[in-house]
Amino acid sequence: MSEKLKIKLSIANRVYPLTIEANQEEGLRKAAKNIETLIKQFEQSYSVRDKQDVLAMCALQFASQEEQKSIDKENVNEHVEEKLNALNDLLHSYLVS
Fold first, then answer.
1. Could you report the per-residue pLDDT of 52-84, keeping only the tens digit for each?
2. Which helix (H) or strand (E) holds 4?
3. pLDDT 10s digits, 29-43
4. The whole model's pTM is what?
5. Other CB atoms closer than 10 Å to residue 2's CB: what's the count?
6. Rounded CA gap, 57 and 83, in Å?
7. Are 16 and 33 in contact (CB under 8 A)?
8. Which Pfam families match (predicted)?
9. Rounded Cα gap, residues 28 and 45, in angstroms
10. To which H or E segment does residue 5 belong?
11. Cα(64)–Cα(86) distance, rounded to whole angstroms?
């Protein structure tokens, strides 16, 4: 049975108590740190007064990165499939000859 941990993460000057699996701690702490870094970047780059707006911009940034990774992966998979089909056709032509 996995060990449960109680941790507190601070995001945008709010503390969030969480009960998590021990193996999730590092990822959650890194994610919170990345969010805090992005918040600071947005606050410095834009005159945003409302934390809600900054958090929405952060959410959009992270979500768009994930979507782009998914699109890129799909394109790579299609390219690999095309190459494998071409190789399969080439091998088949040699075997039939």
1. 999 999 999 999 999 999 999 988 888 999 999
2. strand 4-11
3. 999 999 999 999 999
4. 0.70
5. 9
6. 39
7. no
8. ZapA
9. 26
10. strand 4-11
11. 33
